[in-house]
Amino acid sequence: MTQAQRLDAAHDPCIVRIRGLRYGIGGRTLFDDLDLEVARGEVTAFMGPSGTGKTTLLRLITGQVRPDAGEVLVDGQDVAGLGRAGLYALRRRMGMLFQNGALLTDLDVHENVAFPLREHTRLPDSLIRSIVLTKLHAVGLRGAAGLMPYELSGGMARRVALARAIVMDPEILIYDEPFVGLDPISLGVVLRLIRELNDALGITSIVVSHDVREITAVADSAYLLSGGRVLASGKPSGLADSDSAEVQQFMRGLPDGPVPFHYPAPDYAEQLFGHLSP
Amino acid sequence: MRATRAIELGTGLFVLLGFAALFFLVTQITNREIGFGDGGYRLTAGFEQIGGLKEGAPVSMSGVTIGRVESIGYDFTDYRAKVVLRIDRYYDRIPQDSDASIFTAGLLGGQYVGIGPGGSETFFKDGDQIEFTQSAIVLESLISKFLFSKAAEQGAAVSAEGAK
Amino acid sequence: MKPLIRELADRALESTLAIGRYALFTGRLLAETPRALLRFRLVVGQVHNAGALSLVIIMLSGLFVGMVLGLQGFDLLERFGSEDSLGTAAALGLVKELGPVVTALLFAGRAGTALASELGLMRATDQLSAMEMMAVDPVRRVVMPRFLGGIIAMPLLAAIFSMIGIFGAQLVGVQMMGVDPGQFWSQMRGAVEHDDIMEGVIKSCVFGVACSAIAVYEGFHAMPTAEGVGRATTRTVVISSVVVLLLDYMLTAVML
User: Fold this and answer.
1) What angle do CA A227, A230, A234 make, to 5 degrees?
2) Other C-beta atoms within 10 Å of A10: how many?
3) How far is residue A168's CA from residue C134's CA, in Å, rounded to a whole number?
4) Which of B48, B91, C102, C104 has the highest CB neighbour count under 10 A?
5) A242: which residues sit within 8 A by CB, 6+ positions away?
6) CA pair distance C182, C202, nearest whole angstrom
7) DSSP string of B90-152?
8) C255 touches B: beta carbon within 8 Å
């Protein structure tokens, strides 16, 4: 990448650009000719019913899997074209929050948050300590620094993981299903944190979720994905006004509609009584 | 921090114990002192028959191990087995007319070289050759010798009877 | 007939692939070794897990194996009137054979399963992916210290096993059966060579590499489900045991 391109990339209003993406797994095509853009400094949500490959999309953006065709550009770099070193360099600028937190179970909260610092820097212990405490304070868990992961509730574990995700001051923060299984209070905390971290640190946030209400509350823009395509995109509040039946079904949570209630199966009567007919 | 110290302590104890065990095995259940090969001096001895003598077999005087068999070869100049003995340097006053024999420890035990002291005033030094040697006793030849002598006795008895 | 042949061919191909994957993974581990040794503190923690925590079971097993050797050896040798050689028989049996092999089998059951299930759970709970996302290579950070810890622990455990075993045999032979203690030790000293001990050490080092590699491979590649982790631990024990016995035969044949 030349200097000029790098400058271009820095001025690009979109930090992630996906063009013509095709990806399949085990003979099933998850994405076909998918186009997406994530605006710099905003909270962008990917929504969609389970099984549409939202998490796979995150894996594609972070280079954990490679697309069959098309390109995934993160800050102007084609993720698929990066070698191991390049990929690791890129990931240092990203933070990711896994569904269950994925804290390292043999380290306490403090060491979990300190982990990326210890692996990537040679900072003195005292400095690491203050950085870690700042980040834990930001998620409201400074007092939990000495606890082990198994002593944390689900919501707390997720907040610790969030502190760990921001400890290297990433430019992009990725949340994989951050609202699943949280009580209303923890949910409120996480929602607030996503918004505050995004605005205070000036980072770009990508949230994958199927929780319509929460997304509407937190996201600046949203993509609704289903069957490997983008069904709708734009401001989350505007999505509900779409006249597409599929979008309506998802946004309103209707049990039956274009996404059928039944998994594809042979005819019901045929399967039940077929063997009786001559 | 406490937990790490406990782990380090436990690991340290484990490693110490492991090496102690290894040291025990090396020093206490084998006979060869460490660095034995460096000290001492060599003697050679020729034998007609060494039987089952092996490298590393003990060399003893009156039952005290004073060295080991270092190597075994065949000498084509006098068509005998050439055995090199390494004698510990503490045993440096073996008379030069001493003899070497190959014995068997017990009926089925391993074979060793026994040194019988002579009466000379001069002592062996590095590289000397032991002149007087006695070969290993091979059980088969011993038995056949015994049988032949029995047969000869009987033959003599039979012929004596015939003469009567 | 066709499906059977096809099935056999598929199985053969699958096995060859598995062996290839194992070899490549082990090769990668060995290639990473010098680098991983630099982060020695991580390795020390794993020596603790694989070694210090296996100590009790190893010592207990060693004691009883030694005591059984004392009984059986005494019974056998007494028939030839050579019970004085009990020390030799027990020491050679332990140092060359039982020490390395039984230690390796116990190691597979104790430390190997712990390694495999720990790595499998880390995989299942996304901890390994999280490391990947933090630009930390999980092979370097997680797998290597465990692999090396196992390799360091194995020969030490085997030595401890043999030592305790010899004392166990001594306990039965000398204290209970009345073998002369002087004969017990001196015959042992006369017969056991440094080469015998080296044979045992070499064996246990090889077993250490094999058992550790199998455990971390199975754990690292476990399916990220509860069933997958369970299967990984089972496979660890089964594969380790078979491989240890197979390697034992080959090493014995080579070094005899």
Assistant:
1) 145
2) 11
3) 9
4) C104
5) A232, A248, A251
6) 30
7) T----BTT-EEEEEESTTTS-EEEEEE----SSB--TTEEE-EEEPPPPHHHHHHHHHHHHHH
8) no
Q: How far apart are CA B85 and CA B150, in angstroms?
A: 38
Tokens of C80: 């030839």
Nearest-by-Cβ selection for A116 from C122, C129, C134: C134
Please tell me whether the overall predicted TM-score, pTM, comes out greater than 0.90 for this model.
no
* Closest C-alpha to A187, from A148, A217, A149: A217
| Partner-chain contact B28 C157, CB within 8 Å | no
Residues 6+ apart with CB under 8 A from C2: none
Name every chain C residue with its beta carbon within 8 A of the beta carbon of B10: 48, 52
Closest-approach residue (CA) in chain B for C201: B22
pLDDT digits (tens, 9 = 90+) for C60-76: 999 999 999 999 999 99
Region for A140 from its dihedrals, namely left if φ exceeds 0, alpha if ψ lies in -120 to 50, beta otherwise: left
| Residue of C48, C80, C193 with shortest CB distance to B30 | C193
> What is the Cβ-side half-sphere exposure of residue C33, based on CA atoms within 13 angstroms?
14
Q: Which position has the token pair 């059966």? A: C177
Nearest-Cα residue of chain B relative to residue C155: B18
pLDDT tens by residue, B71-126: 888 988 888 899 998 888 778 888 988 889 888 776 656 678 889 888 888 888 88
ipTM (interface predicted TM):
0.79
In 3D, which of C25, C221, C214 has the Cα closest to residue C124?
A: C221
Cα–Cα distance, A70 to A80 (Å, whole number): 9
Q: Which residues contact A8 (CB under 8 A, 6 or more apart)?
A: A76
Domain boundaries, chain C: 2-255
| CB within 8 Å: B14 and C162 | no
For residue A148, the SS3 value is: coil
Closest residue on chain A to C128 (Cα) = A102
The encoded tokens of residue B136 equal: 């290993």
Q: Determine, for residues C129 and A119 on separate chains, whether the beta-carbon distance falls below 8 Å.
A: no
User: Domain ranges in chain B?
Assistant: 1-30, 41-143
Q: Which domains does chain A have, with CATH numbers?
A: 3-89+204-273 (3.40.50.300)
pLDDT for position B146: 82
Three-class HEC string of C11-27: HHHHHHHHHHHHHHHHH
H-state helical runs in C51-180: 55-79, 86-92, 99-107, 113-124, 127-133, 138, 144-170
Instruction: Determine contact: B64 vs chain C, CB below 8 A.
Output: no
More confident of the two residues A85 and A11: A85
What angle, 0 to 180 degrees and rounded to 10, lies between the N-to-C axes of helices C113-124 and C40-50? Answer: 120
A45, A221 contact by CB (below 8 A): yes
Nearest to C163 among B21, B30, B108 (CB): B21
CB contact under 8 A, A119 and C127: no
C-alpha R_g of chain C = 21
